[in-house]
Design brief:
The protein is an alpha/beta fold. Helix content is 42%, strand content 16%. It folds into three domains: 187 residues, Lambda Exonuclease, Chain A; 58 residues, no CATH class; 210 residues, 2-Layer Sandwich (Nucleotidyltransferase, domain 5), CATH 3.30.420.10. The protein binds iron/sulfur cluster.
Amino acid sequence: MNQVTKTDFIHFINCPESLWLQKNKPNAYTKGPFSLFLEKLIKEGYEVEDYAKLLFPDGLNLPENSTPTYTNQQLNSNHTVFFQPSFLTPKGVFARVDILEKLPDNTYHLYEIKSATSVKKGKLEDACFQKYVLQECGYTVAKVSIIHLNKDYRKQGVIQTKELLTIIDITENTNDIYSAVANKINAATSYINRNAINENKCSCRYKTRTNHCDSFSYFNSDIPDYSIYEIARISAKKIQQLVAQQYLGILDIPLNFKLSTMQQVQVESVRKEKVLINKSSIKSTLNKLQYPLHFIDYETFPAAIPKLDHMGPHQHLVFQVSVHTMQKDGDLTHFEWLGTKIEQPEDMLKQMQNFTGLTGTFISWNAPFEMSRNKDLLEWVPKFKIYLNYMNAHMFDLMTIFKTDYVDFRFHGSTSIKKVLPVLCPQFSYSDLEVQDGTMALDIWGRMVSDPDFGGDRDTTRKNLLAYCKLDSLAMVEIYRVLIK
Ligand code: SF4
C-alpha cells in the first residue's frame, strides 16, 4: 500500500492523475524541466528552516529520517520543542512536522515553515494535513502557526531572525477546513492505491496550456502536433467548446469558430504553413529605435534569504551581463561581465556604462525583467542612477514584435527566444551549450561562488556561463538582422 505524505497530498490537490502516475508508474512519470528550479526551492526551504529554528534555542533536533517510534520516545523527554518529529497514522498517512512545541497542558503547538513572503489563507491545507496526522495519532493540536519570510525585511549587517521571519496564527483557519481536508486525505489514500485509472485522458484536456504538466502528452496521446492548446491566449471556455466537439488540432477548427484577430492570424499561419508578417508595422516600430542599439541580457540570482545589505527576501542579484552593441553601419562590439562573488554589480555598471555610454536604445527580450532589475539597482547602487534611468527610459522589448506582427506556425504559439531563434536563425542553437537556461545558470553560479564543496572546474564553468549569456544577446542581434531584412 502506498503511504501518503504531505508532498503527496499537495500533489493530489493539484492533480490526482499525475500523483497516481508518479506512485504507480514511476518510469512513465516525466520529471519536468523545472526540476532544477524545484531543487533550488527545496534548498532555500532548508535555509529558511535553519533561521526559524533559531527562534527556539532549546529545540531538540531529531535526526533526519528518524522514525515515528523515535519521535514518540522523545516527546516524553524533558524537551518542549522538537524539530522534524515524524508521525504515521494507522492508515499510512505520514507527516514530518517542521517545529512542534509541547504546551504545559500536554497539547501541542504546530509550526509550518514556508520560504514564501506571504501565505494565502485559502492555501493552508498542508498545515492542516500535519494537524490531521497528529490528531489521528492521538495528540491534541491546540494551535497551528505558519512561519514565513517577512517581505518588508531588508538586511542590514547580521540577519535579525525575528525581523526576517513573521509568525501568523492559523488555528482558526485550520479548524474551518479540517473536515474538508480529512475527506481529501481519505480520497488521496484511496486514489493512489487504485489498481488503474483512465490513462487515456486527463482533466487538463479542458484547460489552457499554462495548467499542463509534463505528463500531458502521456495522458493525451491523441492530441496532434499544432494543437488547439498552442493558440496564444486562448480561453479555457474556448478550449472546452473545441474539445467537446473533438476539434483537437488547429487544422480541425471550423472556419466560423470565433477567435481574436491575433488568434486567427496564428490559425491561418498553421493552415497555410505560412509566415505572416505585418511588414509596415515592424518597419515603423524598428524605425523608432535609435542607434547604437545595445542588445542586453542579465542573469540573476534570487535568494530567499538576502545575502547583501539593503536586499530583501527573494530579490534578484544581477551576477552577469552580455551586451552586443550595433552601430548604424552594422558594426558589432561585445561587452560581458560575470561576477566572482556575491556582491552588488557596481564594477559591472561602471564598465558597462563606459562601453555603452548614455546613447542609443537598449533592447532586451521580455524587457520588464531587465527594467525591474535596473529599478532594484537604483536602490542598491544609487550612484548609477542617471545611467540606470537612461536605460529604462530607452528600453525596447524585441519580443513584442512576435506577439503581434510576426507570426510563424513553427513557433508553436510561443514567443520565447528559444523557440524563435532556431526558426529564424537555424545556424544558432542553445542545444550545444553546457548551460541551457537561466535556472541552470543561476544554480551553477550560486554553487560556484558560495558552495565550498563546489566540485566543478571554475575556469570551464565561467566559460560555459559566458557562452550562454553571450548567445542570449547575440540571438537578439541575429533576430533583429532578420527583421530589418
Ligand atoms: S496535464 Fe494536468 S490533469 Fe494531466 S496529469 Fe498533468 S496536471 Fe494532471
